[in-house]
Design goal:
Largest sheet: 7 strands, mixed
Number of helices: 0
Number of strands: 11
Strand content: over 45%
Helix content: under 10%
Radius of gyration: 13 Å
Length: about 120
């Protein structure tokens, strides 16, 4: 059974930082690209960042370039999202996501990030 378990969300002031983690089980983690998505209230879920199986290349949405960094530890089956200089518009539920070689998608349960003074 495939599971993606996120952690690290919380409440932070504008300009602050958080690091999200997502640990996978039930998959050959090192074979898969991993993504972070987010969904703000009343908005569609959007792709925030992607990292390929070996760690590079990476992709970032324009809205987070220069502030967020995606990375992975294939020995620990974990992907990270380091978020710096957080803004109120970054407030959302953040989801870990992957897709296997036959197109089956897997999502984590989501972790809330709230940026507010």
């Amino acid at each position: 059974q495939v599971q993606l378990v996120e952690s690290g969300g919380g409440l932070v002031q504008p300009g602050g930082s958080l690091r999200l983690s997502c640990t996978a089980s039930g998959v050959i983690f090192s074979w898969l690209s991993m993504n972070w998505y987010r969904q703000a209230p009343g908005k569609e879920r959007e792709l925030v960042a992607d990292v390929s199986s070996g760690g590079t290349p990476t992709y970032y949405a324009d809205s987070v370039k220069g502030r967020f960094t995606i990375s992975r530890d294939n020995d620990k089956d974990t992907v990270f999202l380091k978020m710096n200089n957080l803004k109120p518009e970054d407030t959302a539920v953040y989801y870990c996501h992957t897709k296997n070689w036959v197109g089956t998608e897997y999502w984590g349960q989501g972790t809330q990030v709230t940026v507010s003074a």
